[in-house]
Design goal:
Helix content is 22%, strand content 27%. It is an alpha+beta fold. The longest helix is centred in the last third of the chain and has 17 residues. The protein is elongated, with a radius of gyration of 31 Å.
Length: 317
């Protein structure tokens, strides 16, 4: 409750003025207590917090995105919703040309994916004394597991069935050439902060090469799973992967060590008149803005000039 409260009618508007008892929330951004560093910066926990801040926070496993880039020779020209089959098989259909929305849908419905691993294969080598494990090759894990939410048409499963159907003949069962159906896949780690400039920013990315769907998993149905949703399990086979940042693919640059705070909205104290209002005590700023707003709506000069009392002063804000 305010210590003093009063009101007056100006331009047909009730202007209220009051002096609050508590001013702790008047200037939260300028509160000196928020600028204090927690604990001792030189301590172990202080150094840990500093390193986390330099990395702009910790990565979250829920912030990711997958993208599929199909082989141009893969024919995906059938839309299960339209029930129209494209018969001109002479053209090499590309999913990005024929039905980009379906591919985008599959990418968005990926609710689980595994970032691939990379191992150094070793063999024991003994010359004298304890043995040494000597590297002789590198392996990339070869497969990753993915899960996809399915709509009532099971378009997500249909997507991989069509892709897999390009690998062999439906009647002859002869296998197609390897280079005719393998594509590549990107897995992105996204930013985790709440800012609009960072939340959807790609902070880490890998590209899986020579990808194809090896296994389309089974789906179990049960009357007891009333509140469950159908998941489509897919096992993807690949040959190797590369870091889009470290391996200099597409000229991608890694994110800065410290992020920049985006300007989401202009400060309320901008402009000459707004700057004058910001110099007033907090108790008078609200009343002054109410008066300026009423003048902008009711004064004839405000209606004619679009709210500008005098051209040099700019609009009433």
């Amino acid at each position: 409750m305010a210590i003093l409260r009063g009101g007056v009618r100006i331009f047909g508007q009730d202007i209220r003025l009051g002096i609050p008892r508590d001013k702790s929330l008047v200037n939260v951004a300028g509160d000196k207590r928020l600028k204090r560093r927690p604990g001792n910066p030189g301590s172990t926990i202080g150094q840990f917090i500093s390193q986390v801040n330099k990395g702009e926070g910790l990565a979250r496993p829920t912030r990711y995105l997958v993208r599929f880039y199909l082989n141009p020779k893969v024919e995906m020209g059938w839309d299960p919703l339209k029930e129209i089959e494209i018969t001109d098989i002479a053209d090499e259909f590309n999913m990005e040309r024929t039905d980009p929305q379906t591919k985008r849908n599959v990418e968005m419905m990926c609710n689980k994916v595994t970032m691939p691993s990379r191992d150094i294969n070793t063999t024991p080598h003994i010359t004298y004394g304890p043995k040494r494990e000597m590297p002789y090759a590198v392996s990339y894990g070869s497969t990753i597991e993915c899960n996809f939410y399915a709509d009532k048409y099971l378009r997500q499963r249909h997507f991989f069935e069509k892709w897999q159907g390009n690998m062999f003949g439906e009647h002859s069962h002869d296998m197609n050439y390897y280079s005719n159906y393998t594509g590549h896949m990107d897995i992105y780690q996204l930013g985790a902060s709440g800012g609009a400039g960072d939340r959807d920013r790609i902070t880490y990315a890998v590209r899986l090469e020579e990808v194809y769907p090896e296994t389309i998993g089974s789906i179990e149905y049960s009357y007891g799973d009333t509140n469950s949703y159908v998941n489509v399990p897919i096992t993807l086979r690949f040959r190797k992967w590369q870091n889009l940042f470290a391996d200099d693919i597409w000229g991608v640059e890694h994110g800065a060590k410290q992020g920049k705070v985006p300007t989401v909205k202009e400060a309320p104290g901008s402009g000459l008149f707004g700057g004058l209002l910001s110099k007033l005590p907090p108790e008078l700023q609200r009343a002054a803005r109410q008066i300026s707003g009423a003048a902008k709506r009711n004064l004839p000069v405000g209606r004619v000039t679009g709210g500008r009392v005098f051209p040099p002063f700019g609009p009433l804000t």
